[in-house]
Each structure stands twice: as C-alpha cells, then as structure tokens.
Amino acid sequence: MTHEEEIRSILRQPYRRVLVPDEEAGFTAFIQEFPGCIAEGDTPAEAYANLERAAESWLEGVIERGFVVPSSLLRTNSSSGSNLWLRLFPKSKSGAD
Fold it and tell me: In the prediction, which pLDDT does 74 show?
C-alpha cells in the first residue's frame, strides 16, 4: 500500500472533526485526535476542504517519522466510516444568551 492509499484509508475512519465559527468571520476546523491539525476557511465547506488537506499532510509526517497514528475516539457500526462533524457556536450566535 502506498502512503497516499494508507492516508486515504485512515481518513475514512470516523475521526471527530470539529467546526467552530469565528466570532469575527470564517471558520476553524480541527480533528480532535490529530494534535495540531487545524485549518481555517471563509465558509464551512472551505474549512472542511482545507482540513482534509491539512490532515493528509499531518498524517504524511506521522507515517514518515514512524509514529503511531492515533485511533479514532469514535466507534461506528457503519462500514461507510462516516465522520462526525461537531459545530460549536459561541453564545452570541447560538441564541442562548
């Protein structure tokens, strides 16, 4: 298996991706199990796309250095390996003032 195939296989696992709107503008996204793997974007879709590229680079570095790839904190019964997206909203945007 090539590094690219291994990375794609890893990213199909149900890692916890978190999307946080910035109070000023844009969105920040990160994968909870991958320390330091963070991306930003003007829209949720852009933040997600940037996060996937960041995760590929993050995993490439981990694999090349021989480190252990963290296991997903989520468990799924689905063979599709769908990912959980959490959207966190500041009190000012959630309506819970």
Answer: 79
| 73/31: higher pLDDT | 31
* Radius of gyration, CA atoms only, the chain: 15
Q: How far apart are CA 30 and CA 19, in angstroms?
A: 7
One-letter-per-residue 3-state SS of the chain: CCHHHHHHHHHCCCCEEEEEECCCCCEEEEECCCCCCEEEECCHHHHHHHHHHHHHHHHHHHHHCCCCCCCCCCCCCCCCCCCEEEECCCHHHHCCC
**Tokens 């974007």, residue?**
41
